[in-house]
Specification:
By secondary structure, chain A is α+β, with helices and mostly antiparallel strands. Chain A is built from ten helices and two strands, in the order E-H-H-H-H-H-E-H-H-H-H-H. Chain A is elongated and about 60 Å long. Chain B is globular and about 65 Å long. In chain B, 49% of the residues are buried. Classes of the chains: A alpha+beta, B alpha/beta.
């Protein structure tokens, strides 16, 4: 067993920054998308997870929401909904695939190029501010008590943002379990990795994690 | 209430974790001097929020101060006209008015020189004090212009005039991306918020709510529709009366309350109030209430006594009266403009409408389906708790300060 380093729970906050770029037609959107800072792609795919919404199940990202609600093009929205940012190593590749979908749709339906949407799309990006909380733990079983205390933004940092930072594109808890305990908690790591943070809200993710971790350690102790 | 006590009280309503987050964000900022400047100490949403924002910052250990611009009646006439022109009214400011505008700012720059020159962070709120910055060529800190109003469609060349001041700042804050213009300085988006512990929003005893029926001659047995706003054309009080009359044809029981207060920087309010009185034609079921600026508990009680709250604005900065009503579990019918669209989620927290006719239809619907209105109100309460409370806004201000200190980095990790 390697050295067991404590796991320090961190939290984060996003500062949203408008770019001043906006689009009213799909053609304008395509032009702006091709040139924007890749940080905008990250923001519009992931920041909706941090916003409370009645519609998180209906619109997975800001782009598909605009395609559906303002351009009234369900075909385009459905295709973009399928794009899963967890599949991408960098945001440029995700942007390229998004552009391909938009180009394909423009080829299918030329009228969309100049259709004036009811509301403009405003490109934004964010800075993420990360700070340490007072929570820390050293033993995996402590997760039973720690996870219920996590804020949703903390969950975002350790479960979603982590996939950009860790070498295996996994959540921070799995990464820590693997580094500190080797294969001892492989089944827990597998369960954690099966959780899909993109398709469910953070509050639902938290509920599922609490249930899963509690069951795991209760069973383990039985 | 002491500053620390303030934070403990907020923890009870907003959640202890949100106060923990504020402490964690604020700890590395404790040595900073932060100053807010606006144009009025009372009346209007900006003064209301600063009245709590500053003590909360102080409670977090930050050296925060708040100063109010001193201006002549001519100055406030000018800035009110400017306020309206920024929101699209066809008003052209004369060179004489603009000279008053700049002169008053120059005088205030001299008055506040010592405190502003050495501040680490200066938040300038709205257009009234905007030109202050040009009198601080040796400023030490970062200056941020916070625009609380919808500046997306200003009339004529006004924006070109204001932009020369705006672009001297280190950053700007707008409430919505839709309100912005391309600028050479960073544009942060921070939605405003309500204060759940303010007298306007705090829980009230039933007997205090009961008193407003008697005070204003309202019949508690009949439905009450309420709009709370300044008497301002952009709030469309005449459209609200039109909607009420359409409902009244079907539901003769309905009562309408239009309640608002004047603000020290809003000399136009009385003119609009009189216009609204004329349109109401002495209808005994239309109650037009011009309330003092500090009638917060009465406004609170009126909102709680109402069945449905309207905010039928045709142009709106953000429309915090919507969040106030949702916090009190009331369904809201709002105009499809500005921040109202962020707060009124169609079918979830109320209804978004375009016209008096649309408002009338939705009022009728909610009067016939009170259980749906009840559910919308419950949804609204939780939506505001998550999204529009003062603790969230303060956290975003603190986040912005870090962003300005590390302008190149997309990720900023605070020291432990």
């Amino acid at each position: 067993m390697t050295n067991i380093l404590p796991f320090y729970i961190k939290d984060c906050a996003l500062a949203t920054i408008a770019t001043g770029l906006k689009a009213r037609t799909l053609m304008e959107f395509r032009e702006k998308l091709s040139a924007i800072d890749p940080a905008c792609v990250y923001y519009h795919f992931w920041s909706p997870r941090l916003r409370p919404s009645f519609e998180h199940w209906l619109y997975l990202n800001d782009f598909s929401q605009w395609f559906r609600k303002s351009l009234h093009d369900d075909v385009l929205a459905e295709r973009v909904d399928v794009l899963d940012p967890t599949d991408y190593v960098n945001m440029e590749d995700l942007r390229d695939d998004l552009l391909k979908i938009v180009d394909h749709r423009l080829h299918e339906n030329e009228a969309l190029a100049s259709y004036q949407s009811a509301e403009e799309f405003y490109f934004a990006k964010s800075k993420i501010i990360i700070f340490q909380t007072r929570l820390r733990f050293s033993q995996p079983a402590e997760l039973v008590h720690i996870v219920p205390l996590l804020t949703l933004s903390s969950l975002f940092f350790h479960f979603i943002d982590a996939r950009r930072r860790t070498s295996d594109k996994i959540d921070d808890f799995s990464s820590w379990l693997k580094d500190s305990f080797g294969d001892e908690y492989q089944d827990l790591i597998s369960m954690l990795r099966k959780k899909d943070p993109y398709i469910i809200s953070l509050s639902d993710l938290k509920i599922k994690l609490i249930k899963m971790i509690t069951q795991y350690f209760v069973k383990d102790n039985a | 209430m002491s500053d620390q006590k303030t934070l403990e009280e907020y923890a009870k309503v907003c959640g202890a974790e949100s106060i923990d987050q504020l402490h964690q964000l604020a700890n590395p900022l404790k040595d900073l001097k932060i100053v807010h400047v606006n144009s009025t100490a009372s009346g209007g949403g900006v003064a209301e929020i600063l009245n709590k924002f500053v003590p909360m910052m102080q409670g977090l250990g930050i050296d925060a101060k708040w100063f109010v611009l001193e201006g002549s009646p001519d100055f406030f006439d000018c800035t009110k006209a400017m306020h309206n022109a920024i929101q699209g009214s066809e008003i052209v400011l004369t060179s004489t008015q603009l000279k008053v505008y700049e002169d008053v700012n120059m005088q205030n720059g001299e008055r506040l020189k010592d405190v502003l020159e050495c501040a680490d962070i200066v938040f300038i709120h709205d257009p009234q004090p905007l030109p202050l910055i040009q009198h601080f060529p040796n400023k030490k800190g970062k200056w941020i212009w916070r625009c609380h109003i919808d500046a997306s469609n200003p009339f004529g060349n006004l924006w070109d005039y204001l932009k020369k001041f705006v672009e001297q700042y280190d950053a700007t804050i707008f409430s919505l991306a839709e309100f912005t213009h391309p600028l050479s300085v960073p544009i942060f988006i921070i939605a405003p918020s309500i204060d759940p512990l303010a007298e306007k929003n705090i829980e009230l005893a039933e007997n205090e709510i009961d008193k407003v029926y008697e005070l204003f001659g309202l019949d508690r047995a009949r439905p009450i529709i309420l709009q709370v706003s300044r008497f301002d054309r952009f709030k469309d009080p005449v459209g609200v009366i039109k909607a009420y009359r359409l409902v009244k044809k079907i539901n003769t029981d309905v009562q309408l309350v239009l309640a608002g207060s004047g603000a020290a920087d809003d000399p136009e309010g009385m003119t609009i109030f009189k216009e609204v009185e004329t349109v109401a034609e002495n209808d005994p079921d239309i109650h037009i209430l011009l309330l003092p600026n500090d009638a917060h508990r009465i406004i609170n009680a009126l909102q709680r006594a109402s069945n449905i709250v309207l905010q039928k604005s045709i142009r709106e900065g953000f429309g915090l009266t919507v969040a106030e009503a949702l916090w009190k579990r009331k369904p809201v019918i709002g105009g499809s403009t500005g921040g109202i669209r962020l707060q009124v989620i169609n079918g979830e927290t109320g209804f978004v409408v375009q016209t008096p006719e649309g408002a009338a239809y939705r009022i009728r619907y909610l009067l016939e389906h009170p259980e749906e209105g009840f559910q919308m109100g419950a949804n609204g309460r939780e939506y505001v708790r998550d999204k529009f409370l003062i603790t969230r806004q303060l956290a975003e201000y603190l986040t912005l300060i870090y962003s300005l200190q590390c302008t190149d980095a997309d990720r900023i990790e605070l020291p432990v």
